[in-house]
Amino acid sequence: MNLRLVVFIVSLFLSCTFMKAQYTMHTLVSAGYVYQNQSFGELGGKLLFLKNDDVIYRLGGSALMGSTYSEFAIMPKLQADVLLNFEKDVDFYHSYYFLIGAEGTTKYIAPKVGVTLFGILDLTAGYAFPVGNAELNGKQLKGVNVNLTLNIPTVFIHDMFK
């Protein structure tokens, strides 16, 4: 398991390094709500990579915070998304994107699909598969997964406090 994690982190680092030369990268701060067999608040960050505005790639990491059986818990979450919109020469239609992605925690892995408005407000749904017999305070996290996330570009935050 540790070897897989090391290979994943090294390949993620190398892919980000090589993508920087060809793609524009933007940073985002994300906050949201996740329903995964119970309610979680989410707080984290994402990297957005784009060459043109037809296909956009996002990588992110966040913390899911919630209470299970009256015990507070925090779970790390990694995610990867692809945003798609192939309308040509019409900027108004690029206000929405179809989203395909996956997220993983130490307790579950969930493929997801959804829609995003300007890449800022995401609404996604998927199905979570538990990682082995992993439980969070005695509760297995599997089944329908729903996310509502607000992604705020750090440039916007910087300009807001000038």
Protein described:
The protein is an alpha+beta fold and 162 residues long. It is built from 2 helices and 8 strands. It has helices spanning 2-22, 154-160, and strands at 24-36, 39-50, 55-68, 71-84, 96-105, 108-117, 121-130, 143-153. It has an 8-stranded antiparallel barrel. The longest helix has 21 residues, at 2-22. It is globular.
What structural class should be given to the helix and strand makeup? alpha+beta
Rg: 17 Å
Order of helices and strands: HEEEEEEEEH
Low-confidence stretches: none
Strand order of the largest sheet: 1-2-3-4-5-6-7-8
Query: Quaternary arrangement of the chains shown?
Result: single chain
Indicate the overall shape. globular
- The total count of strands amounts to 8
Main beta-sheet strand count, sense and barrel state: 8 strands, antiparallel, barrel
Q: Average pLDDT, to the nearest integer?
A: 85
Helix content: 10-25%
User: Count the helices. How many?
Assistant: 2
Approximately how much beta-strand content do the residues carry?
over 45%
What is the CA-CA span between the terminal residues? 46 Å
Give descriptors for this structure.
162 residues; alpha+beta; eight-stranded antiparallel barrel; 2 helices; 58% strand; globular
